[in-house]
């Protein structure tokens, strides 16, 4: 019933109060296991390894399986692009995994393992919220400017991506990153992906609805509500919270830009 999550049980705390006995489980999922793993020695994979091969080998050291999301197939960056990554002795695996993700337009989703999700502006809406779909209890848009200017720079080349209209409206705010790109074309792609990632990470709205068992992180939802731009707008699901109390079982969503 709903998405299935798999993790490692790290502890059990039992309590009894008011005649009710409860158990609290402490479970480590993929994020926690990547953060907890420390390399016993310096690890550097063979040169020429693809981004996907590096991530799979890295996650395996932390006991985590890597899969491609069936509903959001990953981009070709994981199979066609090579990458260089090294882990020093004592370094956690999570920062290295995020370094592999950073130059792509994709995202990680933690469920039964670590899933790679390919994201794009043309992704169709998986769910409708509001009129004609799952009911909405509340919808609150956030009026905030999104990043509109990014620069990727390495020792040999640099590239920029920007949204001109928003720069003129909101003012310039450059987001620089250092990346090793093998060509000018790849540097340009990195810059566009960086800008998309920065924009996607800014919450644009929050929605509260009766419990929904099917929505997953990275899904696109269509919100039909008077406060949505034009009365109907598409958003990317950035966060999901579930709240239960007697007479109340709800889902709260944090929503961002679809790109």
Structure at a glance:
With 259 residues, the protein is an alpha+beta fold.
Walk me through this protein's architecture.
This protein has 259 residues and is α+β, with helices and mostly antiparallel strands. The protein has six helices and 14 strands. It has helices at 30-36, 51-61, 77-80, 93-101, 164-170, 184-200; strands at residues 8-17, 20-28, 66-68, 107-110, 114-117, 127-130, 138-141, 149-153, 158-162, 175-178, 205-210, 220-224, 232-245, 248-256. Strand 4 (107-110) and strand 5 (114-117) form a beta hairpin. The longest helix has 17 residues, at 184-200. The chain starts with 7 loop residues before the first strand and ends with a strand.
Global morphology: flat
Report the span from N to C terminus.
Answer: 29 Å
Tell me the number of strands.
14
Strand percent estimate: 25-35%
- SS summary, helix count: 6
Quote the average pLDDT.
92
Main β-sheet description: 6 strands, mixed
List keywords for this structure.
3-stranded mixed sheet; 6-stranded mixed sheet; alpha+beta
Helix and strand layout, with pairings?
Elements: E1 8-17, E2 20-28, H1 30-36, H2 51-61, E3 66-68, H3 77-80, H4 93-101, E4 107-110, E5 114-117, E6 127-130, E7 138-141, E8 149-153, E9 158-162, H5 164-170, E10 175-178, H6 184-200, E11 205-210, E12 220-224, E13 232-245, E14 248-256
Parallel strand pairs: 3-5, 6-12, 8-10
Antiparallel strand pairs: 1-2, 4-5, 7-11, 8-9, 11-14, 12-13, 13-14
Helix pairs in contact: 1-4, 2-4
């Amino acid at each position: 019933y709903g998405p299935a999550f798999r993790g490692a049980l790290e502890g059990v705390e039992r309590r009894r109060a008011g005649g009710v006995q409860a158990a609290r489980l402490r479970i480590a999922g993929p994020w926690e296991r990547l953060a907890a793993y420390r390399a016993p020695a310096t690890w550097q994979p063979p040169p020429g390894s693809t981004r996907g091969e590096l991530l799979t080998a890295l996650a395996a050291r932390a006991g985590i399986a890597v899969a491609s999301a069936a509903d959001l197939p990953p981009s070709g960056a994981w199979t066609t692009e090579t990458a260089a990554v090294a882990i020093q002795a004592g370094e956690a695996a999570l920062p290295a995994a995020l370094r592999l993700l950073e130059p792509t337009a994709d995202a990680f989703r933690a469920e039964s393992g670590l899933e790679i999700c390919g994201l794009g502006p043309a992704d169709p809406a998986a769910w409708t919220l509001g009129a004609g779909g799952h009911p909405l209890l509340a919808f609150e848009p956030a009026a905030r400017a999104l990043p509109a200017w990014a620069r990727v720079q390495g020792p040999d080349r640099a590239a920029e991506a920007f949204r001109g209209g928003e720069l003129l409206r909101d003012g310039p705010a450059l987001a620089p990153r250092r990346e090793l790109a093998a060509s000018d074309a790849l540097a340009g792609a990195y810059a566009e992906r960086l800008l998309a990632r920065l924009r996607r990470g800014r919450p644009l709205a929050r929605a509260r609805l009766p419990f929904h068992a099917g929505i997953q992180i990275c899904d696109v939802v269509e919100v039909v509500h008077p406060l949505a731009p034009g009365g109907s707008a598409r958003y990317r699901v950035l966060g999901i919270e579930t709240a239960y109390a007697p007479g109340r079982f709800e889902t709260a969503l944090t929503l961002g830009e679809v790109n």
